[in-house]
Amino acid sequence: MSELLVVDVGTSGVRAALVRPDATVGRVHHVAVLPSSPSPGLVEMDAERLASAVLEVASAALSEVRSAAAVGIANQRATTVVWDRRTGRPVGPAIGWQDLRTVGTCLTLQADGLRLAPNMSATKVAAILDAVDPDRTRAEAGELCAGTVDSWVCWTLSGGGLHVTDATNAGVTGLVRQGDGGRWDCWDERVLDALRIPVQVLPSIVDSSGVIGPATALPGAPVICGIAGDQQASLIGQGCTRPGLAKATFGTGGMLDQCTGTVGPDHAGRGPEGTFPIVAWQQAGVPRWGVEAIMLSAGTCVEWLRDDLGVLATAEESTSVAGACASTGDVWFVPALLGMGTPVWDFGARGTLVGVTRGTGRPELVRAVLEGIAHRGADLLEAAEADSGLPVPTLRVDGGMSANDVFVRALADATGRPVEVAPVLEATTLGAGFLAGLALGTWKDEGEVADAYRPRTVVEPQLSDPDRATRRARWLTARAKAEATIPELSGISF
Q: Which residues of 263-288 are buried (b: 16+ CB within 10 A; e: fewer)?
């Protein structure tokens, strides 16, 4: 059976690769496309550059094979593009998912009972329309299209023939509501009215796995059959397609996602332990659900050691430096450089070092940072289990930090679970390939996807349960010291 082409659009670049029927990945092509920050709090992307990079890497991957059976797409979520329907050109820069320009709008909407976060797409669409079409004349006339990165990629690959988004991406825009059968697949008129977003600018919501339409801009016009936001693609790419299975991606930040099955949530907002319900994927109109826990600072803490403190020459060096000591000497680091997400959601929390002595040296500091990120990973896991009601037998991990052996061992000890390291550093590509393959029958069902997963290595916890409980208690004491460092920000909630 032919290989599956995957286009994977991340925050720092665009990758294309071919996923084989044996669930391996090859023929990878990558082009860097970095976001820009024109002023503090603003994050933008050049949507035209994204489009040209998509066509460049996809064509390069296809040039090495006779044909591809289908196309799968994985994408950074919530980054928002608005473009002219006739010319296909963006009306301005895309607003990145980290962009904070709409914080004020989100706070204002709370007075009307609408709880939207600035990392959602809803207020980003409105901000672009406010700039280019303030009276909404063009939008109401159907001259403009708005969408997340998956919509923009589908439009690009189809030569303007498709204006769609899948259920996983639509579900994190803040623009959908619960429809028939409990699905979140209807645009929410109340939010659209509040932000003056005409529904005609928005894409159709389609399945994450299924025949969507031909990629006519590519040789052979392979059919697009899979779409998912990056975290959901990573969840599927690590075989977490059975209820209870969970993965964590540790990159700049950290995301833990757990599959909860076909029973939908009873709420759209944050759960009691700070997780959010998500559509994990949708096939044949039936959503599979999950919960998501969020860490705002993970790998960025290692970058802080390297770029700001000069403690490390490279991020990779953190493994050997931390390995030079057996313990931190009871030094604890709380990775809250940008505030703290799940479970406490405190934007006024800040990074904190506790227990530093004259004997604390470079190895202890680096180890404390890695162990602090691991304990935040345990926070996310415990929150997901509490909100979902499903235990996690093992934790699967990917992302840049999954290559750090010291960190992975610390994560196993902090969670008290075996940690399975993904066979590829970024599992998003494999997940989008699985979704496309499910539509074609390459894999019969989600059970076969789960069975196809083969971790690169499995790391078992070494601490006894009493020792782990003691260390978790010490960690939680340190975490409490980091909270409400800036009380004014701690009072903000989305």
A: ebbeeeebbebbbbbbbbbbbeeebb
Among the four given CATH numbers 3.40.50.300, 3.40.50.720, 3.40.50.150, 3.30.420.40, the one describing domain 239-421+463-494: 3.30.420.40
Q: Phi/psi of residue 337, each to 5°?
A: -65, -25
* Alpha-helical segments (H) within 8-98: 47-62
Mean pLDDT by 10 residues, the chain (494 residues): 91 94 92 92 95 98 91 97 98 95 95 93 98 98 98 98 97 86 80 98 97 96 97 97 97 96 84 95 94 95 96 96 96 96 96 96 98 98 97 96 97 98 93 97 94 96 97 97 96 89
Phi, psi dihedral angles at 135 (to 5 degrees):
-95, 0
Placement of tokens 């109109």 in the chain: 285
CB 424 within 8 A of CB 433: no
Q: Which residue blocks in 20-74 are alpha helix, DSSP H?
A: 47-62
Q: Fill in the amino acid letter for 173.
A: T
Six-digit token pair at 228? 């998912």
d(CA 9, CA 16): 9
> How far is Cα 135 from Cα 129, in angstroms, rounded to an integer?
9
User: Most distant CA pair in the chain: distance in Å?
Assistant: 69
93-114 residues labelled b (16+ CB within 10 A) or e (exposed): bbbbbbbebbbebbeebeeeeb
Main-chain phi, psi angles of 5, to 5 degrees: -85, 130
Check if 4-230 and 239-421+463-494 are the same fold. yes
Q: For residues 333 and 352, is the Cβ–Cβ distance under 8 A?
A: yes
104 Cβ partners below 8 Å, 6+ apart?
none
CA 428, CA 489: separation in Å to the nearest integer?
33
Q: How far apart are CA 404 and CA 247, in angstroms?
A: 16
Alpha-carbon span 295 to 231, nearest angstrom: 13
> What is the C-alpha separation between 465 and 200, in angstroms, rounded?
56
Could you tell me the residue ranges of all domains in the chain? 4-230, 239-421+463-494
pLDDT of residue 459: 98
Q: Which residues pair with 259 in a beta bridge?
A: 290
- Joined tokens for residue 479: 């975490």
Architecture of the domain whose range is 4-230: 2-Layer Sandwich (3.30)
Burial class (CB within 10 angstroms; exposed 0-12, middle 13-18, buried 19+) of 389: exposed
DSSP conformational letter for 396: E
SS3 290: strand
